[in-house]
Amino acid sequence: MMEKMIFGRFLPGDSPVHKLDPRSKLIFVFAFIIIVFLANNTVTYALLLAFTLLVVLVSRIRLYFLINGLKPVLFLMAFTFLLHIFMTREGAVVFEWKFITIYEEGLRQGIFISIRFLVLVFMTSILTLTTSPISITDGIEVLLNPLKAVKVPVHELALMMSISLRFIPTLMDETDKIMKAQMARGSDLSSGPIKDRIKAVVPLLVPLFVSAFKRAEDLATAMEVRGYRGGEGRTRYRKLKWDMSDTFALVLLGAMAVLLFFYRS
Amino acid sequence: MPEILSLNNVTFSYTPEEKRSRNAVENVSFSVQEGEWIAIVGHNGSGKSTIAKLMNGLLYPQQGDVRILREVLNEENLWESRSQMGMVFQNPDNQFVGATVQDDVAFALENNGVPFEEMVERVHAALEQVKMGNFLDHEPHHLSGGQKQRVAIAGALALKPKLLILDEATSMLDPQGRAEVLQTVQALRAETGLTVISITHDLEEAMLADRVLFMNDGKKFAEGSPDEIFALGDKLVEFGLDLPFAMKLSKLLQKEGVPLMGQHMTEEELVNDLWTSNFNK
Amino acid sequence: MDIKLQQVSYAYAQGTPFEKRALFDIDFEIPSHTYQAIIGHTGSGKSTILQHFNALLKPTSGEVHIGDRIVVAGKKAKDLKAVRQKVGIVFQFPEHQLFEETVLKDIMFGPMNFGVSEKEAEARARELVGLVSLPEDVLEKSPFDLSGGQMRRVAIAGVLAMEPEVIVLDEPTAGLDPRGQKEIMDMFYKLHQERGLTTILVTHSMEDAARYADNIVIMHEGKNVLRGTPQDIFKDVETLKNLRLEPPRIVRFQQKIEKMINTPFSKICLTEEELATEIARVLREERAES
């Protein structure tokens, strides 16, 4: 089960993108999602696509993983593509067969929307593939720190996230083990009437919950014994380092935004 | 030798309102001196795990007191006292807080507000001590049980405590993991004179200790050197434990009429005795 | 019911960049009514192999014969449920699979999944509670109100209630104190002898393998490197050393004595009682000679 979860999973490496501070990557992706909507013609979409592929190249992530990331949204992409193909009736006729007419503008819009999906998926995938979940958490924690002034429990939220992340692989292994144990007792999640299959979830969920509560209890005890008393007076071991390459990445994005603004119609 | 920890006439019950229920720990007293290795043994339910929780203030006794470095453990000095002792628990996963090995070792240091440069130095030093220096960025689900427990030991050592408590730290490990952990603790004692209290039902672990405390049904049944405790023989088996292999074989041989002299805790002793008493005539 | 593995290989995450071979061309047979031990370090493939015995995992190449059923790599296998009833697996820390409101209901879960009537399942549960040394009043309790050792026995009863022909035990004594370990192992041995239950013990303990098994299979890095009776296996000290395995303490002690008196014993002893008797006998002979 665990083997199939490749989408969004961190792939360690030492490309320039891997080495960027998570804060710059988070800001970059966030801003990128906004400037994507600046594109509205062939030149701007081509620029967007080229820019994205450049980032992919620098990150040295294999295309296989990015294409896998497209799979969940493939249906949506295809749907909107076809919607434009058949609904947009402007420009010259490009294709005609029986009652199906495809116009040039429809084809253009269809391609544009597909590029938009593609660059959004690729860019966010690059974020999760080149940044470990814990770095992302660190980045979010530091970026949200100012919110402490308005009583947002930033430290507690970040600790909750980092502990949850640490336990995801462990919990997945455990789910697998419990599932196998119950299957060995004749429990069947994959065949039979729907009613039975839903009932078969109970022998999986109850033990998971029970064990999760025990874990939480044990962990809380261990944390207390190791001196945890909340965020007051705590120092930080994991430090983030912002350097020139981070500033450069954001400047690059800024330049891209300018170009798009300039070339859009 | 300064006293590191003591329990003095400690009685504790999980259900003090129920008059008829048995006390989990009944009138237990013992004292641990600096540099000693004490093993607390007993079957599951003998009170040994309750003692662990009493030792670090997770529970307070209804009667008697617990003293850390001669000061009675209470709510005022709780956190200060906890920084004097490191504890490793039974489940290797359920005490691993950090996303990576070095993050986990740093956890106690972060909690105690240790400055950054010093943290880095201590984390690396502690991991070297447990021979996990090459695993800094490893994630816990890629580690074996023995490795995780060694990281836990490093995490406990990072605060440079006077005392290390192992609460059934080897129960869930395979033989290799158990050997790794016990070797690590022995090496630490040799290098630093660390005081160790280990709570266990594994007699190999108990045999490594200087003194053994034998618990049964909440009471301290006996206290002495491993030799003295294992001399209790059948009482150990009756109370849910096991005898060392050499001892078991020695008893069987004597039953078969083979003349032997005295007790044998180790195989060497038994082999030598067999030779001198029998084969060397 | 025999179980046969023919040229079985298994790879996790086959076809992805994360593919990892866990078993390499495994060939062996588990005849009915025997007690087999599978020994190996963590990572040797023990857990992967045991999941093939009841078709939880299907081989990526080769065939697994479970009684009359044949599971072939690559071919879809339908209706494997019947196999799961015949081959019961007690996983490590089986107490983690308990979930029902009462112990009784949990023990009944297994057999009822295989079509056993409620009445019959309840009868089995009541009988098994005594077999696993639990008091009858435990049936009405919630499994989560019991101690760890008791929970484990409930879980074992739950598997035995399915009345399998073969039982697979994955480190059944993990985490138990010495008394608990002895009771569990003796209980399974008794079941094996009284009911002819084919028993497969997956373990780290050479001592347990020596004491209970008719045959031992040694796994190393996904391969089956050694196979035979305990006596055969323990004679091969060199190979065992290379695999970072040691013969049981009993055997090592016997070897010490043999070296000391420069005379081999007539057989390799597998239990302490056997060893004591042998040593006493050899002594009497020595004395008779001198």
Low-confidence regions of chain C: none
Outline the low-pLDDT stretches of chain B: none
**SSE pattern of chain B:** EEEHEEHEHHHEHEHEEHHHH
Radius of gyration of CA atoms of chain B, rounded to a whole number: 21 Å
* Share of helix of chain C, binned: 40-55%
**Span between N and C termini of chain C?**
54 Å
SSE order of chain C = EEEHEEHEHHHEHEHEEHHHH
CATH topology (level 3) name of the domain at 1-84 and 166-174 and 194-242 in chain B: Rossmann fold
Q: What portion of residues of chain C belong to β-strands?
A: 15-25%
Structure, described:
The complex is a heterotrimer of chains A (265), B (281) and C (290). Chain A is built from 10 helices and 2 strands; from the N terminus they run H-H-H-H-E-E-H-H-H-H-H-H. Chain A is mainly α. Chain A folds into 2 domains: 152 residues, no CATH class; 82 residues, no CATH class. Chain A is flat, with a radius of gyration of 24 Å. Helix content of chain B is 38%, strand content 21%. In chain B, strand 4 and strand 5 form a beta hairpin. Chain B has a 6-stranded mixed sheet with strand order 6-7-8-3-9-10, with helices on both faces. In chain B, strands 2-1-4-5 form a 4-stranded antiparallel sheet, with helices on one face. Chain B is an alpha/beta fold and 281 residues long. Chain C contains 11 helices and 10 strands. In chain C, strand 1 and strand 2 form a beta hairpin. Chain C has a domain of 43 residues. Chains in contact: A-B, A-C, B-C.
